[in-house]
Amino acid sequence: MSSESRLSPRIAGITESATLKVDSRAKALKAQGRPIISYAAGEPDFPTPPNVVEAAVAAVRDPKNHRYTQAVGLPELREAIAAKTLRDSGLKVDPSQVIVTNGGKHAVFQSIAAIVGEGDEVILPTPYWTTYPEVVKIVGGVPVEVFAGADQGYKVTVEQLEAVRTPRTRMLIFVSPSNPTGAVYSAEETAAIGRWALDNGVWVMSDEIYQNLVYEGVKAVSIVEAVPELANQTLLVNGVAKSYAMTGWRLGWMVGPADAIKGAANLQSHLTSNVSNISQRAALEALTGPQETVELMRQAFERRRNVIISELNKIEGLHAPMPQGAFYAYADVTGLLGRQWSGVCPQTSLELADLILEKAEVAAVPGEAFGPSGYLRFSYALGDEPLLEGIQRLQTLFA
């Protein structure tokens, strides 16, 4: 009996997270003593703010946090999330419309599982975060990719969405700022897409995990702020991982209409029960405590963004649009393919990523992880010195 036949077909069909795979390989090579510089991981290099850590330490010592609590989250944290949703997404919700989850990825899974049924189609603007299509397939849905390249600033149009809409279309996944591209939809673009979804009865899962990591005064306008009437068919996904440097704390949330939240709450009651109370207390401090450290991190990301885009675009055959949010540069590398580099002629961005890891000891995630080949994603959530040195290695390799 083959190993695959021993598993559920849906589980056997899941592919490993490409971003985590590349990051794991880079770390393994580094452990062997090679001077690898990795742009693969999507997590801040900063420590969690001290006030958040202290709140967690206090929570550990309090016996009330040693027990089960409500599966949907601590009441005071749900209130804080509701306040943040109003402040940053322009949507007034009752705390009962909030579920605290084990990270943003958990919120993505439950949001899709709550709405998408067998054979339902989910429109997926591409390039996409690697987890989205896998979750859609796990719950029996069908991902429908809509591609927007660098020439469109990696942003899809209403015309593209309408071209793939069918009677089976159930959900649109909307992400602004985007992982992997850093693209931010304007208020007008967001409103147009929101009205299209509203008019056609399409649910929206809006992943807002990067909404506070924007630059040059840009605002990531929430789709429910742009089209308030859409709130009854929208699930918002968010968390503290990116803005607060808390990836390891595994604390996210989902916000939505009462019936969808009730269904997701039932699922969570069987799937995980409550999130760690220690992480919840830490997240409460993150959302309600001082924000100065968070702003300093955002400013550092903006500085690094300017450096990496400037330096990447010095490489002939590579084009990296200026991202307005998140902490990723998504470079079109088609001009580097089909050419000889150190005796190797890469034909795909996967082969190019292997080349630069081997020859320049630089790790980046190939476009195949996020959709079509021909692109590389570089996270600039790493220190200023290695960030510059890694790109200089590439400049030397492709000179």
CATH architecture classification name of the largest domain: 3-Layer(aba) Sandwich
Mean pLDDT: 95
The CATH topology of the largest domain is: Aspartate Aminotransferase, domain 2
- The CATH class of the largest domain turns out to be Alpha Beta
Name given to the CATH homologous superfamily of the largest domain: Type I PLP-dependent aspartate aminotransferase-like (Major domain)
Strand content: 5-15%
Oligomer: single chain
Overall SS class: alpha/beta
**In angstroms, what is the radius of gyration?**
21 Å
Low-confidence stretches: none
In DSSP terms, counting alpha (H) and pi (I) runs of 4 or more, how many helices? 14
Largest sheet: 7 strands, mixed
Strand order of the largest sheet: 2-8-7-6-5-3-4
**Overall tally of domains:** 2
Number of strands: 12
What spatial form do the alpha-carbon principal axes imply? globular
- Percent helix, as a range, is 40-55%
Distance between the termini: 51 Å
| String of helices and strands | HHEHHEHEHEHEHEHEEHHHEHEEEH
